[in-house]
């Protein structure tokens, strides 16, 4: 069992919520870039910038010194996907397990996070934690379940024992690729569902989009070596359903704004919080085309984000696609 301090790299909403989880059975040491986050957690037991209104466990300590986390027994890596490489590269060579929690793909390389982590920290065992989890609910200790994917079973069992709470249930898997692809793809599909909401296209359209989006996720996942059962589990379909159903999702809200006719540039300008799907969409579109995988909903989201068509035109194009067999 991992009994020592768990490090948390990233003091956004999800890093803070996961620190709350880890602090339930030991100390959590959280690194944040923003000095106001460090001060607010240490002095007021609250992350006023990214997770206001939630009282944090006294076993959480915050620091602005990344190297202070080097001695931790395991590290939850919770920066946005595009910043993970730089943060891991800035750390000394680590041997403790890295539990990757960002949901995205690297823009410059189209790599998944576990590939990036292996390149930057080759000696560290890699795990992926992903599933239907809004940070504010987890931090308030409301029930949730996640996929914890680790290739080495013994490492997975140790991490699960350290992170499990009566209200937080990690389900073990060895399908690291599947867990990552579910989390990355669902963010893009959530933008599409937000567009349906913003444009007032109705609940039937949203359900159709979730189902056909899941077919896209499955096609892409299988082409990249994921297992179908992982994609149908918590980190795939589970998270897709959550994120496509609520304005608590930043990705869904971004899509809703697009559907209401606002531009991506306006919606993304001066954002403090991250809507990962906006970064993942073009990368995923590129990776899918390179692999010969048909992902028309992802392509439609890309067109809207880059301003290549109005909402009306993009929806019309999707609806004009040839009719085909459901499993095709
Ligand atoms: N919020 C959630 O409910 C939730 C749940 C599950 C997974 N996630 C995933 O967790 C990851 C982090 O999201 P979040 O919600 O905690 O973030 P957030 O939107 O609450 O905060 C933004 C974060 O980005 C960090 N950041 C900005 N610029 C940076 C840089 N140059 N280098 C390093 N970090 C930088 C900020 O310090 C802050 O921690 C994302 O991949 C997200 O998809 C979020
Ligand atoms: O707010 P979102 O859209 O980043 O979604 C948060 C989590 O990923 C939901 O599981």
From TrEMBL:
Cleaved signal peptide residues: none
UniProt KW keywords: Cytoplasm, Lipid biosynthesis, Lipid metabolism, NAD, NADP, Nucleotide-binding, Oxidoreductase, Phospholipid biosynthesis, Phospholipid metabolism
Domain of life: Bacteria
Binding-site positions, sn-glycerol 3-phosphate: 103, 131, 133, 186, 239, 249-251
Record domain Glycerol-3-phosphate dehydrogenase NAD-dependent C-terminal: where: 175-315
UniProt-annotated location(s): Cytoplasm
Binding sites annotated in the UniProt record for NADPH: 14, 33, 103, 135, 250, 274, 276
UniProt record, GO biological process: carbohydrate metabolic process; glycerol-3-phosphate biosynthetic process; glycerol-3-phosphate catabolic process; glycerophospholipid metabolic process; phospholipid biosynthetic process
GO cellular component: cytosol
Any one GO molecular-function label of the UniProt entry: glycerol-3-phosphate dehydrogenase (NADP+) activity
Reactions catalysed, as given in the entry: sn-glycerol 3-phosphate + NAD(+) = dihydroxyacetone phosphate + NADH + H(+); sn-glycerol 3-phosphate + NADP(+) = dihydroxyacetone phosphate + NADPH + H(+)
Domain Glycerol-3-phosphate dehydrogenase NAD-dependent N-terminal: 6-154
Binding site for NAD(+): 10-15, 135, 250
EC number, UniProt record: 1.1.1.94
Role noted for this protein: Catalyzes the reduction of the glycolytic intermediate dihydroxyacetone phosphate (DHAP) to sn-glycerol 3-phosphate (G3P), the key precursor for phospholipid synthesis.
Entry's family note: Belongs to the NAD-dependent glycerol-3-phosphate dehydrogenase family.
UniProt-listed PANTHER family: GLYCEROL-3-PHOSPHATE DEHYDROGENASE (PTHR11728), GLYCEROL-3-PHOSPHATE DEHYDROGENASE [NAD(+)] 2, CHLOROPLASTIC (PTHR11728:SF1)
Name of the protein described by the UniProt record: Glycerol-3-phosphate dehydrogenase [NAD(P)+]
Organism for this UniProt entry: Sphingomonas parva
